[in-house]
């Protein structure tokens, strides 16, 4: 009797120990920070597919989740599957423990995917001899071809190879909420208005019609094509509009392409000396040096402050100029219309024409060694040749910058699709989130400078 009761106590102790081990194991899994630890597998894998995900990416991610659905918690498995895709397609790096775990879980799935991809590439690429043979057949003309019924059976394979690379080009604006609107990040608060005008869209900032203003709080809203896209709140209408502008900029950058000039881009510097023209390359473009503006030491600045001016340009839309009006001190007795003895306008015109006919995308910057009259002539030449010209600086630091006019769509095509180094050195591009999977190298956010001016 005593031996029987002893055996029962031993079995109970063993059962209690097993239950404790299961409980501890379950607690460790649930405490790992990946969810509740439910491994029932009753959740729908297909519900995690996104609209912008390609078939290839989704198939690989789906196979990963299906392979481990019954052994891993839902939240944890979804995170690990996305980590696997980032490692496989984007080359992302993670802590060594995470990478070892994902590599072990995806071993068979990744090997199968890579094997199929290698076979697909082998079928796709055509050897040089095959391509030469096809070109030779094309030159012989249709008369040298045998009748259709006499064509060899491998004709379909040849046709499939000939079609490689001849598909439709990528539509960069397909499916975007704001269509072909592109943000050119320059000009401070005028950025969105100028970008919408360039894309033939209506832009407006106004007091909110839905939220009632109070003595201490004002509300504003930003509209694109008469649709409210952002709202803001502040102690006065100006502050409220600035808040709404920031929200609108954040929203539009999420759904539109953004372009920004590289401040340290290469620029062709043209300088006049007693021996002729000196042409060099600089990375200090005139539009990035910054123009001197009024500060508190200026009497006019203090007078404007006393009259209620808070900064920025004058006018209902802050369209007035912000920098002082430049002046030029004459140091000779020649008339304004006289020709410069040290410069030949015909040579300068030829220089600018050669710049237009070249494929050089760098700006052409004329240094302050040129006179005011010469800069005026350069402005006229640039206008006649379809170039854009702007002056920066005041007095003895006045510079003229001539640039080529390029459409936003051309910039996007050259930077994103063709990766043209001439454009990539000049422009930074941020793609909308909907196109991030196509251009993962251009998802970094670009900031607008002087946003509050």
Task: Explain this structure.
This is NF-kappa-B-repressing factor. Residues 342-406 form the R3H domain. GO terms for molecular function: RNA binding. There is one protein chain. The protein has a 5-stranded mixed β-sheet, covered by helices on one side. Strands 1-5-11 form a 3-stranded mixed β-sheet, sandwiched between helices. The protein has helices spanning 2-30, 55-67, 74-90, 96-105, 107-124, 128-140, 155-162, 191-198, 237-255, 286-289, 299-306, 345-357, 372-384, 408-417, 421-424, and strands at 182-184, 203-207, 218-224, 227-234, 257-261, 267-273, 276-282, 363-366, 387-392, 399-404, 427-430. The chain is globular. It starts with a helix and ends in a 23-residue tail after the last strand. The protein is α+β, with helices and mostly antiparallel strands and 453 residues long. The chain has 3 domains: 28-134 and 155-167, no CATH class; 182-261 and 429-442, Double Stranded RNA Binding Domain; 267-312 and 343-415, 2-Layer Sandwich (Ribosomal Protein S8, Chain: A, domain 1). The protein is built from 15 helices and 11 strands. Helix 2 crosses helix 3 and helix 12 packs parallel to helix 13.
């Amino acid at each position: 009797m005593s031996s029987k009761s002893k055996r029962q106590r031993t079995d109970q102790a063993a059962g209690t120990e097993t239950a404790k081990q299961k409980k501890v194991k379950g607690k460790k899994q649930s405490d790992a920070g990946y969810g509740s630890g439910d491994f029932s597998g009753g959740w729908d894998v297909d519900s995690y597919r996104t609209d912008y995900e390609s078939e290839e990416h989704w198939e690989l991610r789906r196979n990963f989740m299906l392979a481990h659905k019954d052994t891993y918690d839902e939240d944890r498995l979804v995170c690990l599957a996305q980590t696997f895709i980032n490692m496989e397609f984007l080359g992302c790096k993670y802590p060594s423990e995470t990478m070892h775990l994902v590599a072990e879980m995806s071993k068979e799935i990744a090997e199968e995917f890579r094997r199929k991809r290698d076979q697909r590439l082998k079928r796709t690429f055509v050897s040089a001899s095959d391509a030469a043979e096809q070109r030779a057949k094309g030159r012989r003309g249709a008369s040298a071809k045998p009748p259709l019924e006499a064509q060899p059976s491998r004709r379909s394979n040849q046709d499939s190879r000939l079609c490689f690379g001849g598909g439709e080009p990528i539509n960069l604006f397909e499916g975007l909420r704001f269509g072909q609107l592109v943000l050119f990040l320059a000009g401070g608060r005028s950025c969105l208005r100028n970008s919408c005008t360039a894309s033939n869209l209506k832009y407006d900032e106004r007091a909110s019609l839905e939220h009632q203003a109070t003595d201490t709080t004002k509300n504003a809203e930003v509209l694109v094509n008469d649709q409210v896209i952002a709202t803001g709140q502040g102690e006065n209408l100006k502050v409220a509009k600035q808040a709404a502008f920031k929200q609108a900029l954040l929203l539009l950058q999420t759904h539109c392409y953004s372009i920004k000039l590289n401040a340290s881009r290469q620029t062709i510097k043209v300088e006049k000396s007693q021996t002729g023209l000196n042409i060099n390359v600089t990375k200090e473009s005139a539009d990035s040096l910054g123009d001197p503006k009024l500060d508190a030491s200026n009497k006019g600045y203090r007078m404007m402050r006393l009259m209620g001016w808070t900064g920025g340009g004058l006018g209902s839309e802050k369209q007035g100029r912000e920098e002082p009006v430049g002046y030029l001190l004459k140091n000779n007795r020649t008339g304004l219309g006289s020709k410069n003895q040290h410069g030949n306008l015909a040579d300068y015109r030829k220089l600018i024409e050669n710049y237009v006919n070249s494929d050089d995308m760098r700006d052409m910057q004329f240094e302050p060694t040129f006179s005011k009259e010469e800069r005026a002539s350069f402005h006229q030449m640039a206008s006649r040749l379809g170039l854009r010209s702007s002056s920066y600086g005041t007095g003895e630091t006045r510079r003229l910058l001539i640039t080529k006019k390029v459409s936003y769509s051309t910039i996007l095509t050259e930077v994103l699709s063709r990766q043209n180094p001439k454009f990539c050195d000049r422009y930074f591009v941020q793609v909308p989130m909907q196109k991030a999977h196509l251009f993962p190298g251009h998802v970094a956010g670009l900031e607008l400078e002087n946003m509050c001016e």
